[in-house]
Amino acid sequence: MWIHIFLLLTFIIQARTQNSTQVRKYIFATVFDSILLTGNIKEVKNNQILQWSFIDRLQKSLMLFHSVGVDSPSLSPYYQHRCKYYASNGTLELQRLEIADSGIYQLTVDHYYENVPGKLYIYSLYLDVEETLSTPLIIQEPVYIANNVQLSCISKKGNPTTILWLKGKISITNSSRYTLSDNNSTLSISRVDMDHCGFYTCVAVDSTSERNITHFLLIDDLCFRNSVTSQTHSCHLGRCFCQYIDVSCCNCFHHLLFVKEIQG
Questions:
Q1: What is the CA radius of gyration of the chain?
Q2: The Cα angle at residue 217 between residues 213 and 218, in degrees rounded to 5
Q3: Model's pTM, two decimal places?
């Protein structure tokens, strides 16, 4: 995100300020959250002058000014209804976050160093606000079972940084039968057979949250037999589900058709 462009620029600007001490911290949050902007100060003392500023791509805006022991804290009009100020340690609570709140929050404290007049304490927070990650969807193509099947994991909101796939509880990696592509958002299954039937879970992860959804890969109108391992199947509404019970899929499918004819 553009916020990272500031890292070098801010470092260069602050490096030229010899009579100051700078501390930097990186934080992440999601839309509508609240976050504490702390300057890592244990206690605010009289005669100190505190300023909170917000730096975005266009300008540097003053958020709060507090001359301790002289004047009451003053929040800028834009932040009056979104910020709560804790005068004891200079912390700001920023509420109802928006994407536009991404940027640099800088606390400057004058008279912080009692024995070094004029030396400033500068604390910078690099905040990245992201969309709340929604529960993803798994789209199967084609919807019927063919020789090759694709499962696509799609998030309507948010930008997952990592996508993982599981079959049951086992992590899926690239192999002769499974291929992950499009930053792991697409799982391609080749030469589909009975062993591929089961539950597939897509796990979407970003810097602040994790969401997952599970999809059952079923077999439409296909019956598999495995006399070697004696694996059998159950079925439901004419589809063969890969489970291990004592009824063969084909017999179950024919039984459903027979029951349907009687009920009809």
A1: 29
A2: 140
A3: 0.61
